[in-house]
């Protein structure tokens, strides 16, 4: 009985991906991917362009049909209603195009799904979310007229509004699924957003992020899934995955690892001679 409860509690704070596959039309895009992510940790998904990172993320968030099993909080995501999913996880897509004129406050407000907050609560939540992403006071600006990096941060503020508490009142962790959340940001804002995401995990939430930048991944990820050709190449804790041979194979390019000063964080660089 006690053991059963323990197992149940554990699965409720995990994302369990078991032999997951995704086909678009008849073409298999993702095959046999297995890994677990834990609430309280930052899990990164890396791999070359076209390796299936976005497709896998969409399967995990309930946007694409999949074979195998993908469970969030012990529940098969493909069977959950959109409303239930919206309370459990927020999703930052790789590209968010909005083709009608909205101001920033309206875009961020799309994430405020708790109607009990009332108008003042809603306004405050939007302001707090914008401050968190470094866009304090941007409420009245036109979304269309912002830079790509600013739009990306507005979208993140929207997602944060949706799953504000890393651990909700019911004791269940909430999840952030982020597809290249910092790829169009300058270095200061890249670190700001990575710290924000890592802080969400440190507070007990789950974070799963597709990452382009290997050094930001090394600096912030607890565990890393490496994708190649639609399959899992490897999965493990940061230091087991951040290896020159493994990354060179993943990206089909000679890479070397170094460290900066006395830092524990590995730094990935092109292998000597790559520029010749
Ligand atoms: N809607 C789609 N129709 C056909 N092929 C797709 C579709 N979406 C993605 N793909 C293909 O699936 C592969 C993986 O794409 P994606 O998941 O976007 O990769 P990544 O995010 O790793 O760059 C690519 O070869 C891509 O062309
Ligand atoms: Mg992608």
Automatic annotation (TrEMBL):
Keywords: ATP-binding, Nucleotide-binding, Translocase, Transport. The keyword Chaperone does not apply. This is Iron complex transport system ATP-binding protein. It comes from the Bacteria. Residues 15-254 form the ABC transporter domain. One of its GO terms (molecular function) is ATP binding. Part of the ABC transporter complex HmuTUV involved in hemin import. Responsible for energy coupling to the transport system. PROSITE patterns: ABC_TRANSPORTER_1 (PS00211), ABC_TRANSPORTER_2 (PS50893). The lineage of its organism: Bacteria, Pseudomonadati, Pseudomonadota, Alphaproteobacteria, Hyphomicrobiales. Pfam families: ABC_tran (PF00005). Belongs to the ABC transporter superfamily. InterPro entries: AAA+_ATPase, ABC_transporter-like_ATP-bd, ABC_transporter-like_CS, P-loop_NTPase. The keyword Iron does not apply. Gene3D superfamilies: P-loop containing nucleotide triphosphate hydrolases.
């Amino acid at each position: 009985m006690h053991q059963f409860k323990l197992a149940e509690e554990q699965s409720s704070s995990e994302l369990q991906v078991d032999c997951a596959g995704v086909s678009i039309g008849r073409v298999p895009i993702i095959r046999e991917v297995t890994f677990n992510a834990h609430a309280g940790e930052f899990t990164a998904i890396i791999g070359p362009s076209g390796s299936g990172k976005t497709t896998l993320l969409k399967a995990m968030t309930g946007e694409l049909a999949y074979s195998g099993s993908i469970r969030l909080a012990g529940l098969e995501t493909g069977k959950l209603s959109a409303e239930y999913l919206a309370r459990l996880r927020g999703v930052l897509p790789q590209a968010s195009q909005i083709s009608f004129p909205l101001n920033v406050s309206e875009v961020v407000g799309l994430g405020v799904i708790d109607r009990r907050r009332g108008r003042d609560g809603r306004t405050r939540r939007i302001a707090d979310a914008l401050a968190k992403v470094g866009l304090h006071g941007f409420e009245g600006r036109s979304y269309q007229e912002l830079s790509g990096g600013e739009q990306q941060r507005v979208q993140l503020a929207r997602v944060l509004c949706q799953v504000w508490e890393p651990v909700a009142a019911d004791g269940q962790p909430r999840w952030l699924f982020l597809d290249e959340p910092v790829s169009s940001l300058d270095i200061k804002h890249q670190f700001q957003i990575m710290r924000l995401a890592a802080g969400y995990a440190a507070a007990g939430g789950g974070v799963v992020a597709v990452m382009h930048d290997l050094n930001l991944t090394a600096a912030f990820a607890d565990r890393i899934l490496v994708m190649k050709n639609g399959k899992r190449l490897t999965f493990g804790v940061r230091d087991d995955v951040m290896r020159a041979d493994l990354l060179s194979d993943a990206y089909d390019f000679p890479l070397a690892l170094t460290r900066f000063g006395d830092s524990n964080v590995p730094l990935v660089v092109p292998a000597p001679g790559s520029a010749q």
